[in-house]
Amino acid sequence: MRPSKSVVVFILFFTAGSGTIVNDSYSDFTEEDNTPQLDYNNPRWCRSLSLTNGEVTCHSTRGRAYRSSLGTHCEMSCDRGYRLIGKRLIQCLASRLWSGTAHCRKMRCFVLPLIPHGRYTCTRGFVVDSRCDFTCNPGYRIEGEHSRTCQHGGSWTGAQPDCLDTDPPKIKCPLSRIKVAEPGKLTARVTWDPPSARDTADKSLEVILVGQEPDTDFKEGANIIQYKVYDQARNRATCKFIVRVEVRRCPELSPPMHGSLTCSSDGNNYGATCDYLCDGGYELRGVSSRVCQFDRNWDGSPAECVATEIKSDVKTASALLDQFYEKRRLLIVSAPNITDPDYQLQNIMIQKSDCGLELRHVTVIELLGSPPHETGHIKDSLLNSEVIEVLRQVFRISRTYFSMVLLDELGLDRERFITTASCGMKRNEIGSSSTGTCVIK
């Protein structure tokens, strides 16, 4: 029995090796019907490999024709820009399957962040070898890399750039202007609206005035006003305009012969007033003052200073004083005689106009001596004795000592002196002190 059993086993092995299907009731043989038989000579033992976006490199000891035969080793690699997912090395197994699988996934770099005040454009998005070029908004420039490239490892070259504000702000000044000086002044009050400024980046700008503030008095001539504006990046812009103040002037007036002019303000500017004054012994004929008009002409006509006709042969003091009322002042000098030292000294001072004494508007009446040899005269014209007596009584002038009485245009006794006026005598003032200082205007 044993030998026959051995034969049976041999037959089963042979038939299995030949691939013949045997109908047998033994379950062990039935299960092995689907098990492939190892055949190193079959060049297509495992399925053919392909790798999308990649390459398969296989090695077999039997040659290139046996790329998928049993025992073949294959190396998987992906194209540039793709990453291998799975096994890199696989082998064709007896099970007719490869020892692993793999596929190629497209590589990507992270999404680049946006840059303030700028943007970027990419050639192929965020995949490998894509280049992203950076540009800045108008008024800004790139600081740093102008472009970045997605590398094979999934990282970007370089660093993220910045957009720097290099564009200065824009500012527009008011228009230049001319203003006529106000009447009687050499200045004009000028105002204007503040300048408009804008910037490509900043809404808040620092505007600085260089020059005189608006709504103030500007002097004659050209006044340069400048504004500066800075943005947050300290870029600067400037603008200028001119405020010109024009003083309208009349032709200069000539003083009258035997007289002078006293003018307000600058003398001949619009609104200035010039008063005519006549020297002693002369009186004004014509207008007393003239005003410079806006059209650069003086109003009225020139005045004249004509010799004053003083009648000294009048019979009464009132008739004499009426000739000076509201016209001239009177200085009455009295002395006991012509040899009085105070009189002589004062007479010399008056003749020489010492201490600034000016007699253009003052008429001097001299009363000398006592009756019956008393004399009174205005320059070379003698006064009536009755007129002399009334003047002494009305103004309480003694014959026994030297004295002076200053009368104003209204005939009022303004100052009285019992000694010589030694100094301080000048025009346009009236005053005295305990030392006998006399000032005549």
Automatic annotation (TrEMBL):
Disulfide bridge positions per record: 136-163, 278-305
HYR domain boundaries: 164-247
MF GO annotations: signaling receptor binding
Residue span(s) of domain Sushi: 56-106, 107-165, 248-307
Gene3D superfamilies assigned to the protein according to its UniProt record, in alphabetical order: Complement Module, domain 1
Keyword Cell wall biogenesis/degradation: no
Keyword Repeat: yes
Origin: domain of life: Eukaryota
Swiss-Prot/TrEMBL GO biological process terms: angiogenesis; cell-cell adhesion; positive regulation of cell migration involved in sprouting angiogenesis; positive regulation of synapse assembly
Principal location listed in the UniProt entry: other
PROSITE patterns: HYR (PS50825), SUSHI (PS50923)
GO cellular component labels: cell surface; cytoplasm; extracellular region; synapse
UniProt name for this protein: Sushi repeat-containing protein SRPX2
